[in-house]
Every structure is written in structure tokens, then in C-alpha cells.
Amino acid sequence: MSLVEITPSAYDVDIALVYATPHNLSGSVIYTDPVCYLHERAAELLKKAVHLAQPLGLRIKILDAFRPSEAQWCLWNALPDPEFVADPRRGSPHTRGVAIDLTLVDDKGVELEMGTGFDEAIPQSHHAATDIPVIAQRNRFTLLGIMMAAGWDNYKNEWWHYQMFNSRDYPLIEQAQLPKPMM
Question: Beta-strand (E) ranges in the chain?
């Protein structure tokens, strides 16, 4: 298995895994032992993104990364809408360790305005939404520029979601394969 643990000190990021709290679309804690993992190739792209954000006075805050298949089922059961949640029978880039949900924070750790919250399953969450404040549009484009310049692909329906190109080429990873269980 090619997952590596992402820590704030090793990657110079903030981590706040939303699914380790009940404040997510399922309304329940999904990760009882939250550990942030990414495929080793995705971790290299994360380093590039961190490096690109720094001169702008920005930091990356990770909201989710690798997600066990079992967690994908929890999300699907709460919101079986393929526009926002991947069908777990097909798998998600998250369940392969090659996707990351994130936002940008300023030098004081305050999240930049993005127009909607994380995991809001509404049209305003789409990257190209124009019915959000102009500052949020700018911030989304800043995030998009950083991530694409670092080698990530975006998902058009979620401003927070980025994945590696050819993400379906990577195998699904189950909870039992982890060095430390998350659920």
C-alpha cells in the first residue's frame, strides 16, 4: 500500500478532518480515530501546493483526504446524490487516497471566504458559481490556480475537492488495509 500519513509538522498544513466531527453531511462522527492519509504521489502534489500558497501568505487546511470505503458508504447513505457523493460501488478518488478536500487560510489561520461551506450540496458550491460574493469567487480561483499549478485536477461541482488525474487508475483501499484504523 502506498499511503503516507500527512501531519501538520511534516507538510506545513492545517488539518481539521470534518468527518471526525458530527458537523458533516451525515450528522454523525465517521472517523473515530482521525488520521490524514494520502497516496504517496498525491502527498508530493500536496507539497507543491503548499509551496505555491506560501508566497501569497496563505496556508492549506485539509478537511478530508483518504477516506475508507466504509466511510464512503456512510456518506452515500446520508446523501445518495452522485453530483456530490461518489457511489461507493464504483469508489471515489478519496477511497483510493488520491483526492483531497481543502480550503485556504490566511496567516492567522482564518479560512478565506469561499461562498459556501464545505460539503454544502447546492449549486453555489460549484466552482463556476457566480451567485456568490465576488471575494469568494476570487478566493476559489486562487485555490484553483494553486492546485492546478501543483498538478491537481478539480471536480467542477465542489470548490473544495481536488484529485489526481487518472484517479480511477488507483486501487480502492479498505479500512482493514490501514496501518491505523480510522473508524
Answer: 3-5, 14-15, 37-39, 59-64, 99-105, 153-154, 161-163
* CA nearest to 66, candidates 157, 156, 151, 180: 180
Sign of the Cα torsion 169, 174, 175, 178 reads negative
In three-state secondary structure terms, 15 is strand
Q: Is the pTM above the cut of 0.85?
A: yes
Instruction: Report how far residue 170's alpha carbon sits from residue 127's, in angstroms, rounded to the nearest whole number.
Output: 25
Angle at 82 between CA 44 and CA 89, to 5 degrees: 75
| pLDDT, tens digit (0-9, with 9 covering 90-100), for 124-144 | 999 999 999 999 999 999 999
Spatial separation of the C-alpha atoms in residues 61 and 126, rounded to whole Å? 19
Which of the following is catalytic: 5, 40, 158, 174?
A: 158
| Tens-place pLDDT, residues 21-41 | 999 999 999 999 999 999 999
Annotation says 120 is catalytic = no
